[in-house]
Structure prediction request, 153 residues.
Amino acid sequence: MRKRITDSQFVASLLADAPAAELSTALVPQPRQLTPDALAWAETLTLKRRGVETRMIIGAETAQLDATLLRNVNGARRWYQQIVGGATINQVTTQAGISKRHFKAMITLAFLAPDLLAKITSGMQPVAITSEWLKTNGVPADWNAQRTLLGSL
Prediction:
């Protein structure tokens, strides 16, 4: 089910964080305050898809760590180290409590390019890059192909 936010709901949610004096002024402006500058709002607005949701980003994007993505990258790297250490996929999946299908979909996260890992760990990855997106679409083994694919989001 999708909920549509109207302009009035959006404005109300923005004003709800304002101090009481500013809120009363904003809700009941004096006629002299209704200048073209007071009625105009110039700010960058970007809509970005993130999995099944769409995020509205107002102004410059700020770093936001994706805990699920970080957890899955760390898990994939840990699984890879276990495989290198001699463990079988059956042992790794049993110990981690995951299916082989999940393992196969997520192990590619262990092979992300170092600069992409740096972006993920600092929260600067494109908003569209989520664990679910990576699991569904897969990650190329070639680092340049990764950069091209993920840079296009």
Q: What stands out?
A: The CA atoms of residues 42 and 126 lie 24 Å apart.
